[in-house]
Design goal:
Elements lengths: L6 E6 L3 E10 L2 E11 L11 H18 L6 E6 L5 E6 L6 H15 L8 E8 L9 E8 H13 L3 E7 H8 L11 E8 L2 E8 L2 E9 L3 H13 L13 E6 L4 H11 L13 E2 L1 H4 L12 H8 L3
Parallel strand pairs: 1-4, 3-13, 4-8, 9-12
Antiparallel strand pairs: 1-2, 2-3, 5-7, 6-7, 9-10, 10-11
């Protein structure tokens, strides 16, 4: 990790702000800050006006700074899955980047006619045909620009430089490689459960190859969604017997829910520790944050580890 720059990852949920800060020292990543603050009044990204959202964020950040001053002035932010429009689409690899972007923008407007396509910020990841994916496709992730503008204004008022914004699940997945449960060069399954949304993804040697998101309002709906995903064979050739490891992260992932998912799916899910392979500064260790809560910091950790 030579040349790694100091970087803070923020995970913003409806109930709390989590911060993971990592610094580069002697070619290694060091965990230098691990903090979370709960909002006095939960965020409502849909109903709250921008001024209200900014005020709530600022209040939480001010509280956090009392005990945990950031070293870095560069941050990246993980946001709730429900704010994103995430789909997997076939694509023509003869098209240039900007032509592909416009093609995906049009596809999103068809799939989600209630949104204005020009109001979306889009990124995509090309997935080449492989032993599990039957044809070239792309994972397309779009978010309304108003949320990017919200975070940009927060950063400006706090003299912070914004680097990346990503969905909580994509961010959490980046932290698996430094966890205690990392298994390289195999097919893995990952679940992320958040408020009213559940996301599933498959990765091959830590590289994303398939994802899907579903609105879920109960444990029953979460279990049904996972069962349906494990039974799919139209979009991919993945059978549960090919899965070498399965991970779970998110909000309110109780032991009871984890056991129900394992019983239903016939797969053991690991609540991984995203800090297992990095050292911590004494200031972090002195906070005595319970190890069983480390998994909930996976999105903040993953976005902090991100370099490109």
């Amino acid at each position: 990790m030579n040349g790694f720059e100091n970087h803070a990852g923020f995970n913003i949920t409806s109930t709390k702000l989590q911060v993971v800060e990592v610094t580069g020292e002697s070619g290694k990543i060091i965990l230098s800050n691990l903090s979370e603050v709960f909002f006095n009044i939960p965020l409502d990204f849909v109903k709250d006006k921008e001024t209200i959202l900014l005020a709530k964020l600022q209040s939480a950040y001010d509280e956090l700074k009392i005990s945990s001053q950031l070293i870095s002035k560069t941050i990246s932010v993980a946001l709730p899955i429900k704010l994103f429009y995430i789909v997997q689409l076939p694509f023509d690899n003869s098209l240039l980047y900007w032509d592909l972007l416009e093609e995906f923008r049009w596809e999103l407007s068809v799939l989600f006619p209630h949104i204005q396509k020009d109001e979306l910020s889009i990124q995509f990841f090309e997935i080449e045909k492989n032993m599990y994916i039957t044809k070239n496709n792309a994972i397309v992730s779009a978010i309304p620009r108003k949320y990017i503008e919200l975070i940009a204004k927060f950063c400006k008022s706090n003299e912070l430089k914004l680097r990346f914004i990503d969905s909580a699940h994509f961010a959490a997945e980046r932290s698996v490689i430094l966890s205690d449960k990392a298994v390289p060069r195999v097919l893995t399954l990952s679940l992320h459960i958040s408020e009213n949304s559940t996301s599933v993804l498959y990765a091959l040697d830590f590289k994303l190859i398939y994802t899907n998101v579903c609105s879920t309002k109960s444990e029953k709906e979460i279990i049904t969604f996972i069962e349906e995903e494990l039974s799919k064979e139209t979009a991919h050739k993945i059978n549960r017997k090919f899965i070498s490891a399965a991970y779970i992260s998110g909000e309110n992932v109780t032991t009871e829910l984890k056991h129900k998912l394992e019983y239903s799916a016939g797969i053991k899910f690991s609540k991984f520790n995203p800090f297992f392979k990095i050292d911590s500064e004494s200031t972090v260790e002195n906070k005595k944050i319970p190890a069983e809560t480390f998994n909930s910091f996976a999105p903040a950790a993953g976005i902090a580890y991100r370099t490109d």
